[in-house]
């Protein structure tokens, strides 16, 4: 899942590597989801930021070729949730983190969205 602000250019179909930069809450790794069971729209709408999300697809072969490990981390809301343990907030400035973010950015084959989650105040 990508936060939309300045990370994806639909004209060039390019995803900025900072789309994969760990945030403060990424203490155990950057969150990703396996496909299926959720659709891209369901995934995009599940985000916390009202600024919206776009969903990027990265083939499993690309992860393997760059030796990027993905660990299953299912949640009640998302049984397909997983994390990339090497991309944590504490190591976000390391050479390896940069290498991984670049590899993920280059490996994106499709982007859908944007999807805009409902604001908390409007949820039933």
Topology:
Blueprint: E1 2-3, E2 8-9, E3 14-15, E4 30-33, H1 40-45, E5 53-57, H2 60-65, E6 71-72, E7 81-84, H3 95-107, E8 110-115
Antiparallel strand pairs: 1-5, 2-3, 4-7, 5-8, 6-7
Structure description:
The protein has helices spanning 40-45, 60-65, 95-107, and strands spanning 2-3, 8-9, 14-15, 30-33, 53-57, 71-72, 81-84, 110-115. It is α+β, with helices and mostly antiparallel strands. The chain has one domain. The strands form three sheets. A three-stranded antiparallel beta sheet has the order 1-5-8. A three-stranded antiparallel beta sheet has the order 4-7-6, with no helix packed on it. The chain is globular and about 35 Å long. The model has no long low-confidence stretch (mean pLDDT 86).
Key descriptive features of the protein:
20% helix; alpha+beta; single chain; 124 residues; three-stranded antiparallel sheet
Describe this structure in a few short sentences:
This protein has 124 residues and is α+β, with helices and mostly antiparallel strands. The chain has helices at 40-45, 60-65, 95-107, and strands spanning 2-3, 8-9, 14-15, 30-33, 53-57, 71-72, 81-84, 110-115. The strands form 3 sheets. A 3-stranded antiparallel β-sheet has the order 1-5-8. Strands 4-7-6 form a 3-stranded antiparallel β-sheet, with no helix packed on it. A two-stranded antiparallel ribbon has the order 2-3.
SSE topology string: EEEEHEHEEHE
Beta-strand percentage range: 15-25%
The count of DSSP E runs of length 2 or more, i.e. the number of strands, is: 8
Biggest β-sheet strands, sense, barrel: 3 strands, antiparallel
- In angstroms, what separates the terminal alpha carbons? 24 Å
């Amino acid at each position: 899942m990508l936060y939309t602000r300045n990370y994806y250019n639909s004209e060039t179909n390019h995803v900025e590597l900072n789309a994969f930069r760990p945030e403060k809450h990424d203490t155990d790794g950057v969150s990703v989801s396996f496909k299926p069971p959720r659709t891209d729209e369901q995934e995009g709408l599940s985000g916390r930021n009202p600024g919206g999300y776009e969903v990027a697809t990265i083939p499993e072969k690309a992860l393997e070729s760059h030796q990027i490990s993905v660990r299953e981390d299912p949640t009640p809301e998302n049984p397909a949730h997983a994390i990339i343990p090497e991309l944590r907030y504490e190591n976000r400035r390391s050479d390896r983190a940069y290498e991984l973010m670049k590899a993920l950015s280059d490996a994106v084959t499709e982007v859908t969205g944007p999807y805009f989650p409902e604001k908390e105040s409007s949820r039933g």
